[in-house]
Amino acid sequence: MEITPFRIDVPQADLDDLRERIARTRWPRELPGVGWERGTPVGYLRELADYWRDGFDWRAQEARLNQFPQFTTLIDGQEIHFLHVRSPEPDALPLLVSHGWPSSVAEFTQIIGPLTDPRAYGGDPRQAFHLVVPSLPGFGFSPPVTEAGWGLPRTVGAYAELMRRLGYERYGTQGGDVGAGVAAMLAGAAAGAVIGIHMNGPANYGTADEANLTDVEKERLQRAAELEAHGTGYLTLQANQPSTIGVALHDSPVAQLAWIVEKFQAWTDPAKALPEDAVDRDQMLTTVTATWLNGAGAASAQFIYESMNGPHAWSLGEDAPEVWEGPVVPTAVAVFAADLSIRSGVNQGNITRWTDYDTGGHFPAMEVPDLLVEDVRAFFAELR
After folding, report:
1. Is 109 exposed, middle or buried (0-12, 13-18, 19+ CB in 10 A)?
2. How many angstroms separate the CA atoms of 222 and 208, rounded?
3. Helix crossing, 253-267 with 42-54: angle to 10°?
4. Is 357:371 a contact under the CB 8 Å cutoff?
5. I need a surface site. Which of 1, 144, 345, 360 has the fewest CB within 10 A?
6. Are 186 and 164 in contact (CB under 8 A)?
7. Which pTM was predicted?
């Protein structure tokens, strides 16, 4: 039951080792004219790696993250790292916010202030939240798991226990990607405690009504077909051979960089040509660095394997409705420009709010934080 204060303090030797490994990268020859269609281009990656080695300041990012109160606690044999940022407003609503893959708690640094202290940001103090932001097991600053079985369901159970341990008996949930599954499943794992679910860009769990799609939804359906045909190699590999790719991600920082940056390019606002056009370059590299320093590349691949093959698997087929088992509570869905969600395809649960945005993407807390904050505030304003 012990909750221990935590502060990020990466040994200098680890940072020196990172720079040395980047410098020793053996670069492959790049085919001319292929761009991003075959993955992360070598030329772009080399430039980014050079900046990561010589220009990126981890200590500055470390200090920024350490401005937020952080803790660890042991649940079900696994140490869980989390931010716990209480609002100065006494009647604030507790909200558990979960990141997805490939990400970490660093994703949320721009929304923590406005959500916890709206008064200081020109907002309504009645819309304040106490935030609990855990690092998924094996991700970010949660240590790699030491046994099999740590997929989505076990994680959700751990988060329900975390909220009980913090004394929160009534709260909301928010998440995207894996975090959307966490947000939804917590309503079942913490029956009676979760008052509302807010998610951004969930996958389509049902079959979309293709006869009645809007032009925007038709375009999303086309992009979804392209993703299924050409963009799921990362998922297939991690869902089947996580130990194989885990070796490369654990040994080579540039392999880890290419693995994550490819998804930042593919999943951020489609109007942005390069990942750093959508997400600040230093913030993107903070996610990559946190993943590298803690061995989260290999550990998160194992998490994907467990979640794709265990109970409540992310099959996006016949097993997917299990995500919604448990009490049906009000649910909000925010769909940003790069997302593929179609209203008639997300047909489980009790969706009371659906908002389409023409900007942003898979990482709205980093891409369009103001829009995400306003959407979260508006949804929970009627549930408090």
Report:
1. buried
2. 12
3. 120
4. yes
5. 1
6. no
7. 0.94
